[in-house]
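Q: My collaborator sent me two sequences in one message, no labels, and asked for predicted structures for both. Can we handle them in order? The first one she listed is below.
A: Yes, handling them in the order given. First sequence, followed by its structure tokens:
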Amino acid sequence: MLEVTIARVSDLDPEGEYPLSPYRREKLKRQKNDLARKQGLGAELLLIKALEAAAPELLPPLDISCGKDGKPELVGSGIFFNLSHSGNYAACAVSDSPIGLDIQTERDFNKGIAEKYFTDPERRFFEESENKAYAFTKLWSMKESAVKYIGTGLKTPLTSFSVDSEKGEALLCGQRLFFHHSIIDGCHLALCSGDCAAVRKIKINEVKLLP
């Protein structure tokens, strides 16, 4: 089972009443601006919506805790999830095996960041690309999804592994990882999984969070 959904969050009311987890309520309290609160709210509402079909026994408010490296988990469920947001979009992936998800609004190529966070083969990919902003954001989203898959986030140096964006593969911590990449309204969405067959056939479903 592997499902990925996205939704626009610009119309959400961050002051509204929602059946949010204590984990999410604490995160929203720390957000500094209205868009960040809408993004976080939209991410959990997408998770609730996805679980209605994938695990209807998990009723909101959800019981979410963080693992030793800070990756959120659904306590005692056997369901894996990953959330991301950027700009006006939130995204959610749910699966019965580990998953990593990242969404990024396309950004300009930054040579300094490329030299600091990308490997030599990845930098050659930028150099050979006609659209460097596209190539830069595509690889950034894929690398982010990989470290979210293993649960360490940016604690794992991004230069410690290379993503082959043409094949959609990487080797990280001894694991062969596989990627899906999509463009949605100017945003790059990357999905990382250890299940090649599942990730290759995934379709991204856009849903509405409000009636």
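Q: And the one she listed second?
A: Here it is, processed independently of the first:
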Amino acid sequence: MPTSHQQDRIQSRYGQAHSVKPPSSEAAAALFDHLLAHRTVRSLQSKALEEGMLEQLIAAAQSAASSSNLQTWSVVAVRDSERKARLASYAGNQAHIRECPLLLVWLADLSRLERIGDHIGQETAANQYLEMFLMACIDASLAAQNAVLCAEALGLGTVYIGAMRNKPESVIQELGLPPKVFPVFGLCVGYPKAEIETAVKPRLPQSVVLHLERYQHEHELASVQTYDQIMRQFQRSQAMAEIDWSLHSTQRVADARSLNGRDRLAEAIRAQGFPIR
């Protein structure tokens, strides 16, 4: 039988009781608990990370899966306050970018393979295709999530910054990125402010995202309507403006303006040396 703590973790993740059986082994249960406890932390102290933590995060990142072991990602660690302020101005002026002690900008990086190919006389023409750019973005994402899990285990908080793609040319110039390197997203890292408690945000029920054998959405609407109510309860508990998840999420993809400048992302990607065939 799940313990009350495990039941609380599962209920927090879904905002209601859910038929998820926790792992039986102690080690697996501890990891499962760690994963369920993930939350976004925007209120971060400016206090610098302990020595060695950055390298620990990168070691965890490099332990993630990498397609064909090509390792088509890199990351820029930004600590300089003026540089963080400029990057914040390109990414919607989010205060936590300026305030966090460490900003990691995760990169899709095909330039390394091209430099190595040039050095040994090997063609790298496949780097011009969409598959390779997509692979690099996936590699960067897997690496970053490993770093997040490591950060949380170290007592740190994190928040992803998708708005690093709002003005990619400015970010590219600020970080001195060569052709075939593109900023996929940022990640603020720091110690959470103890006086501000961040709750676990409920996710959609498994009945919406889990499909057995074939894709099925016949009963999706009822589950989403229930989730709308769960999210309203969460927003109320966090003193947030109440809005149905279904409305909030569809508004986010309503038109090009809702992309906050990212509607011209294909243009910026090609300008950075990715033909995307």
